[in-house]
Design goal:
The chain is about 25% helix and about 20% strand. With about 500 residues, it is an alpha/beta fold. It has three domains: about 10-190 and about 230-300, Aldolase class I (TIM Barrel), CATH 3.20.20.70; about 330-415, Elongation Factor Tu (Ef-tu), domain 3, CATH 2.40.30.10; about 425-490, Alpha-Beta Plaits, CATH 3.30.70.250. It is globular.
Length: about 500
């Protein structure tokens, strides 16, 4: 591909809602998983009917849909694959992402019209390897994540499409090929069942002192020796531009719609600015884009192997990615999605996280800068006044000055000042290991109407848990039953 041609922006889509948001916020293509044969067995994933629906949705907008079939197949998988691959072709998939040579050979036999993309799990790290795969009928090679910019430049001399990851979680194992999960839990990472043992807490033992554990670093939470940072190549897009890569890929099929929307929006604007306006305009807008990426849940960012320790993030050679501090961070909480205009100038929204009158929320729209507004009026589906939206996925109507386009997201920034709490609210401040905060947040979010958790001091590991007086005893008991060390500091 010529360097002056814009690369495709390829976004993750764990389900139909994420697919729609990826396209709404600017993706050129999405990659999705079927119910089998992908490496994200616990993502939402798509039935064959949903894959066809997603492909049709994409094609109506001039976009593309690729399907992951990147398991390392065992012998018993091939009978089902022989039926599955032609079904993907009939459903309108624009390509499949494969890693196993046997799956590739089968696809050429039973669905020869399906374009083949080689997964990063196939570990293509050099030009000769890329040329080999192109000779096998592969249209696009997703390069291994272990490559520096100089190595990518060398591989780019091959005749064929190249794709790289530019953003998202990284696996500490070589391009994601790992046996640790299977060994410790019986769940095969190479068949979509990874238990992420690289994120677990480990300690050092000495053979003559059984039962004594020594932290590998002086840290009360333990040592996360395999814990990788997240990849973020946004600041280095000018370095990648001359390489003529076909596609820039964002990781995250298991992330929520706020992550998908915010990340896609940033990279869409960054690519368009760099390719059409040049590096000066790109550099001017970069701080604002970086601030936006910080809004969605992420681990500390790294440039991975791209710079090979030569410059940039100052974290030494290699990826600088094994980090005891690499817990989740985020600067805002996603609270609702905009459905559309309602009567009397109100805007209808679907609640995803509790919020109330008096709060200042921010609108993340598909285009334009985020803007804030104060929640001054709220009513339920029957038009009755409400002081808060507390129940998962309930529909309420708000007054939003200037309105908000359908599909926009509403979020509460961590810097916003919270309003006074109603008498019916129950608040608890608690402390727990920083690495466990995200688990607690996700758990309480999954309970829906019982309450919400917001981080008030990431460094100290302190959170605020909000519920109502009637529901608080149930929520408190559920939290204490978790395999987490939660210390309640005060309960008002």
């Amino acid at each position: 591909m010529r360097p002056d041609s814009k690369p495709e922006l390829l976004a993750p889509a764990g389900d139909m809602e994420k697919l729609r948001y990826a396209f709404l916020f600017g993706a050129d293509a999405v990659y999705v998983g079927g119910e089998r044969f992908g490496l994200r067995a616990r993502a939402g994933n798509f039935s064959l009917a949903e894959l066809a629906e997603g492909a049709a949705f994409a094609h109506e907008r001039g976009k593309k849909l690729y399907v992951t079939v990147n398991v390392f197949a065992h012998e018993e998988d091939f009978a089902a694959l022989a039926d599955f691959l032609p079904a993907l072709s009939r459903g309108g998939a624009d390509g499949i992402i494969v890693s196993d040579p046997g799956v590739l050979a089968l696809a050429r036999d039973v669905a020869p019209e399906l374009p083949l993309h080689l997964s990063t799990q196939a570990n293509c790290t050099n030009r000769r390897s890329a040329e080999f795969w192109f000779a096998q009928g592969v249209r696009r090679v997703v390069l291994a994540r272990e490559l520096s910019a100089e190595e990518i430049r060398a591989v780019a001399a091959a005749e064929g499409e190249l794709e790289i990851f530019v953003h998202g979680a990284m696996c500490v194992s070589y391009s994601g090929r790992c046996l640790l999960s299977q060994y410790l839990t019986g769940r095969d990472a190479n068949r979509g069942e990874c238990a992420q043992p690289c994120r677990w807490e480990y300690a050092l033992t000495e053979s003559k002192r059984p039962g004594e554990y020594y932290p590998l670093e002086e840290d009360a939470r333990g040592a996360y020796i395999f814990n990788s940072r997240d990849l973020c190549l946004l600041p280095h897009l000018p370095l990648l531009k001359p390489l003529g890569l076909r596609s820039f890929k964002i990781e995250g099929r298991m992330k929520g719609i706020h992550y998908v929307a915010a990340t896609v929006k940033v990279y869409r604007e960054a690519i368009d600015t760099l390719w059409t306006e040049g590096e000066t305009a790109f550099a001017a807008a970069l701080p604002e884009w970086q601030a936006e990426l910080a809004q969605a849940s992420h681990r500390p960012f790294s440039s991975g192997f791209l710079l090979n320790g030569a410059e940039g993030d100052g974290r030494g050679p290699g990826p600088g990615q094994s980090d005891a501090e690499a817990g989740y961070e985020r600067e805002s909480d996603f609270v609702a999605r905009v459905l559309g205009p309602a009567a009397d100038g109100f805007t209808e929204v679907e609640e995803r996280n509790a919020f109330r009158l008096g709060e200042t929320l921010e609108i993340l729209a598909p285009s334009g800068r985020p803007r804030g507004f104060r929640v001054t009026e709220m009513r339920d589906a029957d038009g009755r006044p409400r002081d808060a939206a507390r129940h998962a996925q309930e529909t309420v109507a708000l007054t939003i000055p200037g309105g908000a386009p359908p599909g926009s997201l509403l979020r509460r920034t961590r810097a916003a000042t919270a309003p006074p709490f109603a008498d019916s609210d129950r608040l608890a401040r608690a402390r727990l290991a920083r690495a466990d905060i995200q688990m607690l947040v996700k758990y309480v979010e999954g309970l829906g109407h019982l309450g919400i958790v917001t981080t008030i001091d990431q460094q100290a590991g302190e959170v605020m848990i909000q519920s109502t007086r009637g529901l608080w005893p149930e929520l408190r008991a559920l939290i204490l039953a978790l395999p987490l060390r939660v210390e309640f500091l005060d309960e008002s």
